[in-house]
Amino acid sequence: MLVRRVIAVLCALGSVATLAVGETRTEAEEEALARIYDHPGPVHIIPNDALPPGLLPTLHVRSSDPAMNRAFAQARASLPAALAATEKSNGWFSPSLALYIAVFVNAPGTPIEFVWVDSIQRDGKGYRGKLAGSARFLQDNRLRAPISFLNPQIADWAVQAEDGRYYGYFTTRARLPSLDEPLAAKLRALLVGNPVPALWK
Prior knowledge:
The longest helix is centred in the middle third of the chain and has 21 residues, at about 65-85. By secondary structure, the protein is of the alpha+beta class. The chain has 5 helices and 6 strands; from the N terminus they run αααββββββαα. The chain has helices at about 1-15, 25-35, 65-85, 170-175, 185-190; strands at about 95-105, 110-125, 125-130, 145-150, 155-160, 165-170. The model is unreliable at about 5-25, about 35-50 and about 50-55 (pLDDT under 50). The chain has one domain (about 1-200). Strands 4-3-2-1-5-6 form a 6-stranded antiparallel sheet. β1 and β2 form a beta hairpin.
């Protein structure tokens, strides 16, 4: 659990996304939006009475780093398998599961923040969990604060293997080449070589 929080904090520090939301935007805001999202136009907050998660459009994020773009795509592609493999009874998921979600925070210049959550349970059409690391811009940003979210907000996932290492953490893996040693080596040792278990494929 502590290891997951350490990696979560590392990911959160480098993953605060900025974008423009609203009816009118400046040219600079339009450019910022184009860098983050892979389609033009306004970004709409998902309403509480939205369609079931499976029918909602995925939150499309784009980074200036091609490796990060691949990480987002790989995480989303393998997310159904991760959720199916870790769901337990009464809507609860295994304590070994953590999800990296995009949250609307409406902070000046930063309407969206990415945070890791764990202690996950289905909640109607979406999910609820607890913050696995301290957030910067959320109103309730305490460690272990409760948070609700929908499937399209999920950008990455992580599951602890039996040997204590982790599957998933696609965004962390994408950042490893840019990290200094020995931190990169320590984090690399915590990750299973193949991010997706062979049995899930």
